[in-house]
Design a protein that fits this description.
This protein is of the alpha/beta class and about 900 residues long. About 25% of the residues lie in helices and about 25% in strands.
Length: about 900
């Protein structure tokens, strides 16, 4: 029987009239194969006349637009399948395009009028009444027959559908489901066969392979699940190690849908002759890559992509017929000129360039089609400005200066993308803005803490503070933005500042220093690290890497742009932590107990078992390393630098400076050895934590590296649980024996701990040995990291939210905080919040040491004693932790010392005063 509601537009751009080096003939075969199986009555049953196939010379811009213009002929009850196989790429102004047979390139960028822009695609799909639309994009090719472009025949793979374009596509109508052949940082492998791996899996699935038809139909979700696993297996079987090394070792199709939206029938299942009721309550299989998009965010993305009016400093993009429909500014003026080109009535204008700042482009007379060059709208940014000062101008010491915080177009003293999704398109949201500064250096007076922002990101009320510098010098102010109704922190922003006395000469611009200088301390006596890597957020998707390194025979100082999304990095870091926790709870019989890595009797693990359990961990670490330094579109120079790092001698200092919140990951677990990882090929030196003295520096105002303990002492906070008494009593005795009773102060139990945190003692080291739990939004949508908690007594918890409610003062002595508790250093994959930023950014701790996952109590006890002994002897914290990681792995085959992360300069050390060990 036929599938009469099925309509399809199949596009395969295999040859390029003007750019033959982009040819990928396989994509033509892809389109033909998909068209054939859809039309085949033995399988999908689409009516032949309802399947449009455009390939090669037929797949021109004009022909594709004409086919898209035919989509309004569908009915709401129809199913529309749109398949595109070709190159996706950007034009010079940053707009995403689908290339066509007659596409031109200029400087490696698509000439906008020779391809299908995202706006043109969105407009056509908005006009399609079909309420079941499956969009399939195979737009990022690499493999056996990879096209080339540019000098030296550098591989050109194209670019898969960007997330923001996919988000916008969902709002073009009801029932839109998007499947891309790979994730954003991956490529779609061509493979050795007649079809690309994606098209082969797709046609197999449309023939009913890999799943059972539900009531005689093929479900969009079942089809996607088949694609995901079939392509993963095909990559493993058919893609050579050399290609995996060059382009990445995996390809994962991605599904994008609205949250809570069910699937629909795509086609008949193997030419079914009887049909039942189609079930809509099932979901894709676990382990697949599903992006669920908030409808409000999707609508905002669509509005940004198709924008016909603009105000302020934005730019406008208009597509369509505007004859006799002038677009005017708020003042009533009609604009007929934009940039260097003038629009004349009575003619056909194909492109107008320029920026229409503060106005709107339109035509008031004549019958004509106006196409204004698309200028992608900027997403809303969290901005700051000092009133009366130009950007980067120093603040005068002793003078009160208003600091204003607002959301809008990125401008001002400091700006980062606003990390908030509005619940709907109409309701403004109130935020409370907090400003943190070192009390000895700054006076802060709150004028207006409430910032009101309307969707999609326009401030109707700004937050304002009066800031007074007490002394000259460089520093950092810290802003925290929280929802006023829930007090949930949605964003942090670090604001570099410089204060001078009026007669002082101004320094170099701070904005330039944020790019060029990776080390946050200004003390010239502090030696540089051998390798300094600074990670900065990008204006759009991606990030910037600034490298300053002393390599073999030369010094490198370069900046690289990496087009990898924050979500990809966050999800890979989440998997890395999960693999480490799997080792903690790995069941085994060799040790005589249930968990050989968490034994209460011994720290030693069978070496063979250790290597076997570390393989998934190394694989996850390799994935994170690959995203950061070896992604397919990362600069070749950055890839070479990452490879050169392997030649550094063991014990080299590597410093990661984080100007972006997305990089709070377990850096000790990055694994950079190439090739397949097995128990036999695993190289412990591939882990960064084994090879390097590694230090991670998040946003913070760091004092000098040397700590003096005269007169302040050390403060230890212990859990009073009887099951831990053996360990805590030993640690307390160790404190007193090594430091003396006057220097060591021990606090036991929940009540006493809460009291001492209200009025913290002047300690140079704050040490905690207790239970801990971490709450993750990655595991539960409503979970917030502020619910993470510490336990100092049985049955009680001190949540991070509770700590913030305590009237705790800024740490006057800037202590090093060692939180020896389960998951003390874990950062949520979706929130930059936790104990580490709380102690460093909010309380001014000098540094932070904590565990990424659950910590076995015996190992935690032993690590603490060894660390504290070395620290009291004046050794640097980075050196201590590096040697401990190697000791437990070399001597005990136990990798769990890698659980400890250091967040501060590795050169922090204690300079002993009058109190000596045993004194």
């Amino acid at each position: 029987m036929p599938f009469p509601h099925g309509h399809a537009l199949i596009i395969g751009v295999g040859t390029y009239q003007h750019e033959p080096r982009l040819n990928v003939p396989t994509t033509t075969a892809d389109a033909q194969a998909v068209s054939e199986v859809l039309r085949d009555p033995r399988f999908c049953g689409y009516p032949v006349e309802q399947v449009t196939l455009l390939t090669d010379g037929q797949a021109t811009r004009a022909a594709i637009l004409a086919a898209l213009d035919n989509l309004p002929h569908t009915k709401p009850t129809d199913t529309l399948l749109l398949f595109y196989s070709g190159h996706g790429h950007y034009s010079a102004d940053g707009t995403y395009h689908l290339t066509t047979h007659d596409t031109h390139l200029d400087g490696g960028k698509v000439v906008a009028s020779t391809a299908i822009s995202q706006t043109e695609l969105l407009e056509r799909l908005r006009a399609a009444p079909a309420e079941r639309v499956l969009l399939l994009f195979n737009a990022c090719h690499a493999g056996e027959v990879s096209p080339v472009l540019g000098e030296g025949d550098a591989p050109f793979t194209g670019t898969t559908l960007p997330p923001q374009t996919a988000d916008a596509l969902l709002s073009t109508g009801s029932g839109r489901i998007i499947i891309t052949a790979c994730r954003e940082q991956q490529v779609s492998f061509i493979g050795p066969g007649p079809l690309t791996l994606f098209a082969q899996a797709l046609t197999d699935g449309l023939r009913g392979q890999g799943f059972n038809g539900r009531a005689g139909f093929i479900s969009a979700y079942d089809l996607y699940t088949h694609l995901f696993f079939a392509i993963g297996e095909a990559v493993e079987r058919h893609i050579s190690p050399a290609l995996k090394q060059q382009y990445g070792d995996t390809q994962e199709p991605e599904l994008t849908v609205f949250k809570g939206v069910g699937p629909f029938a795509v086609a008949l299942y193997r030419g079914a002759s009887a049909l039942g009721d189609f079930p809509t309550d099932h979901t894709p299989a676990g382990g697949t890559v599903v992006r669920e998009v908030n409808p409000a965010r999707s609508q905002w993305a669509l509005q940004q992509a198709i924008q016909q009016t603009v105000s302020g400093t934005g730019a406008v993009g208009v597509v369509g017929n505007v004859s006799h429909s002038p677009i005017t500014t708020g003042s009533g003026h009609t604009v007929i000129q934009s940039g260097r080109d003038t629009v004349h009535a009575g003619g056909d204008v194909t492109q107008v360039g320029g920026d229409s700042s503060g106005q709107t482009v339109g035509v008031s007379t004549g019958n004509m089609t106006l196409v204004v060059k698309e200028i992608p709208a900027q997403p809303p940014h969290l901005n700051t400005r000092f009133e009366g000062l130009t950007p980067n101008q120093p603040l005068p010491v002793g003078q009160r200066v208003p600091l204003v915080v607002w959301v809008g177009t990125p401008t001002g003293q400091r700006s980062e993308r606003f990390q908030f999704t509005f619940p709907d398109d109409h309701t403004p949201v109130e935020f409370t803005v907090h400003l943190h500064a070192v009390p000895d250096a700054w006076t802060v007076r709150v004028i207006e803490p409430t910032m009101i922002v309307a969707p999609p990101g326009t401030t109707t009320q700004e937050a304002e503070f009066l800031v007074t510098a007490k002394q000259p010098g460089r520093d950092t102010l810290f802003l925290t933005v929280a929802r006023a109704d829930t007090s949930v922190t949605v964003q942090h922003l670090c604001l570099p500042v410089y204060a001078v006395r009026e007669a002082a000469a101004p320094p170099r611009p701070l904005a330039r220093e944020r790019i060029e200088v990776s080390f946050p301390l200004e003390d010239p006596t502090i030696p540089r690290r051998q390798v300094e890597i600074a990670l900065h957020p990008g204006e759009e998707e991606g990030f910037t890497v600034v490298v300053r390194a002393d390599l073999d025979g030369h010094t490198l100082w370069e900046t690289y742009r990496v087009p990898v999304s924050a979500e990809a990095i966050q999800n890979a870091a989440l998997r890395l932590r999960q693999e480490l926790e799997h080792i903690v709870f790995y069941p085994g019989k060799q040790s005589g107990g249930p968990f050989p890595f968490a034994s209460l009797d011994t720290l030693t693990v069978d070496e063979t078992l250790s290597r076997q359990t570390a393989v998934p961990l190394a694989d996850a670490g390799q994935q994170v390393w690959h995203l950061l330094f070896q992604s397919p579109r990362a600069p070749a120079e950055l890839k070479q630098f990452a490879a050169d790092l392997r030649d550094l001698p063991h014990g080299s200092s590597v410093q990661m400076v984080l100007y972006s919140q997305r990089f709070i990951i377990p850096w000790t677990l990055l694994y950079d050895q190439p090739g397949t990882i097995t128990a036999d090929t695993l190289d412990w030196a591939g882990f960064w934590g084994y090879r390097y003295r590694l230090e991670v520096i998040p946003p913070g105002n760091y004092p000098a590296l040397t700590i003096t303990d005269q007169p302040p002492g050390w403060l230890a906070l212990f859990n009073d649980d009887a099951s831990l008494r053996t360990f805590t009593a030993t640690q307390e005795q160790f404190f007193r024996t090594m430091l003396g009773s006057e220097a060591a102060h021990s606090i036991w139990g929940d009540t006493a701990v809460r009291q001492v945190l209200r009025t913290p003692e002047a300690a140079v080291l704050l040490y905690c040995y207790c239970h801990g739990t971490h709450t993750s939004g990655a595991m539960k949508a409503t979970a917030l990291a502020s619910e993470s908690a510490l336990s100092f007594s049985t049955g009680t918890q001190v949540r991070l939210a509770d700590l913030r409610r305590l009237p705790a003062a800024y740490f006057a002595q800037r202590p090093l905080v060692f939180l020896n508790a389960c998951e003390g250093a874990t950062q949520d994959a979706f929130y930059y919040d936790g104990f580490m930023p709380y102690f460093i950014e909010e309380l001014g701790a000098r540094g932070f040491i904590g565990t990424e996952v659950k910590a076995p109590v015996f190992l935690a006890h032993e690590v603490a004693l060894r660390f504290l002994e070395a620290f009291a002897a004046g050794q640097e914290v980075g050196e201590i932790l590096w040697r401990l990681r190697r000791h437990y792995l070399d001597a005990h085959h136990n990798i769990l010392a890698f659980n400890y992360s250091l967040y501060c300069p590795g050169g922090v050390r204690l300079e002993r005063g009058r109190t000596e060990p045993g004194g």
